[in-house]
Amino acid sequence: MLTVSTVNVNGLRAAAKKGFVEWLGATDAQVVACQEVRCAPEQLPALLREPAGWHTAHAVCATKGRNGVCLFSRTEPESVRVGFGEAEFEDSGRYVEMHLPGLVVASVYLPSGDVGTSRQEEKERFMAAFLPYLVELRGKAEASGREVLVLGDWNIAHAEVDLKNWRGNRNNSGFLPEEREWLGRVFGEAGYVDVQRRLDPHGPGPYTWWSYRGKAFDNDAGWRIDYHVATPGLADRVVEMRVERAPSYDQRWSDHAPVTATFDWPPP
């Protein structure tokens, strides 16, 4: 079996003080992807910079305290890639991938966007550049006999069942028609699969992010924006998925929850 988790940690150093270290020590995952790390590896405590039993890869943002993604793997990677070849985003801390035996696994953090601002324009440029890379990645992986699993915070709820208050968010970044259409292209022409929906086609949720404001967490008024996006050969072998939602608001170490999938992998 292969168990894989993804979580936006909302600052890894802060999360480490609130429970992430204990979670990482207890997880049965072989791979963990993190987003919004917000620091360089040398700024992390040793138990996260070089955790026993794990190999790590980081993509650090050139702007201090922003973005940042990383991967923890119990298997030593054959190679690591930072960025996906688009000059604007190479040092933005938004993409890192590991090549493991039979599998390419990546951690991605899409821009959050904000309608009518330069942040939304940045998100649109990222999406425009990232889709052809996903197509290219799938093709190269197939040629080398590998599957692909892209984990992360995609900052888009794909369908109405993916957020509680979809009617009130139709004009907000993260649920815009053009964003949802783009994610549909990832699951269509690019040939990838939303692994959660392979197991649970209808929803609603399960949600993976809840605002810190108001009673969003207590009322489960969340969004599903953290995805396992896989090539079909891997997606077809999923046997379980779970959102590791904290038992109470005060036990959260991020505004996101880990999303964990188990696959019957490698195939016989």
From TrEMBL:
Site feature (Important for catalytic activity) residues: D226
Required cofactor(s): Mg(2+); Mn(2+)
Active site per the UniProt annotation: Y109, D153, H256
List of residues binding Mg(2+): N8, E36, D153, N155, D255, H256
Domain Endonuclease/exonuclease/phosphatase positions: 6-256
UniProt site positions, description: Interaction with DNA substrate: H256
Superkingdom per UniProt: Bacteria
Alphabetical UniProt keywords: Hydrolase, Magnesium, Manganese, Metal-binding
A biological process from GO: DNA repair
Cofactor binding note: Probably binds two magnesium or manganese ions per subunit.
Site feature: Transition state stabilizer: N155
SUPFAM superfamilies the record matches: DNase I-like (SSF56219)
Single annotated GO MF: double-stranded DNA 3'-5' DNA exonuclease activity
Family: Belongs to the DNA repair enzymes AP/ExoA family.
Protein name per Swiss-Prot or TrEMBL: Exodeoxyribonuclease-3
